[in-house]
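[stage:ingest] chain + small molecule (succinic acid)
[stage:ingest] validated
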Amino acid sequence: MPDSGEETELPLTFTPLGTALGARVTGLDVTNISTEDARVLYENWLKYHVLVVPGPIISEDQLVDFGRCFGALENARRQSVLALRPEIMVISNIRENGETVGALPDGELSFHFDRLHQKVPNKAGVLHAMEIPDAGGDTWFANMSLAYDTLPEATKARLEGLTALNTYEYGQTHSANKKLDADAPTAVHPVVRTVPETGRKALFICRLMTDRILELPEAESRALLDELCDHAESQRFVYAHQWTPGDILIWDNRCTIHARTDFDGRQRRLMKRVTVGDDTPPVH
Ligand code: SIN
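[stage:predict] done
[stage:export] tokens:
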């Protein structure tokens, strides 16, 4: 066949990453995302909760364009010397003159929703892998809708109308290490929330940030939170992502929690993140 010189567009394909959640996207040119591509991406992100787009390392402008397919982006809380655009949050263990250049530099990070301690937590997070260690530093995602659906009916009934206090000390990776200032932001959210576009319910508590179910006595609250976190973090609800440089991964922060595994601190890990904001507080 003679080469006509015309480029043939591949259809967007979504291949499930397992039974819990997530799909791998092929056929997407991240440097040139059409309105129709953005619509199909959004529809499948609602369905799979996590999308992984493998590819070459892209520019910050292109990462911002990708993130905007899912909503308006927030600026990073702290600007890094390794970022040019205000929307880019750098997550890295790289140190310059003894100072970290990014957030969440080292090691293991327990399961959390991003910004659950704020009145309106964000809608989605996007991570783009630039440099990764030889082993570890994987990011795990758990499907909180599936975790909710599979609770015993009696537990679902018990959770009706419950709310929880969520707190966070910036930079902490485990709840036991949290030390809160008097002015630290805190937020009360329903223990079960609904994702507006799908009407699906999801557990909305996590090990790192949820301190207390407000309607229950302390001991009962602790026991129920431990039971719910143990349930949600079980392997059948989890997709564990092992990074390859160039990967772009987007998660739905309304119905998935994520965590990071430990890695050798002598090896560099550099991720760039953009954060999709939300406009309404979570409701049951
Ligand atoms: C995050 O929680 O945004 C960071 C996850 C990671 O470093 O893999």
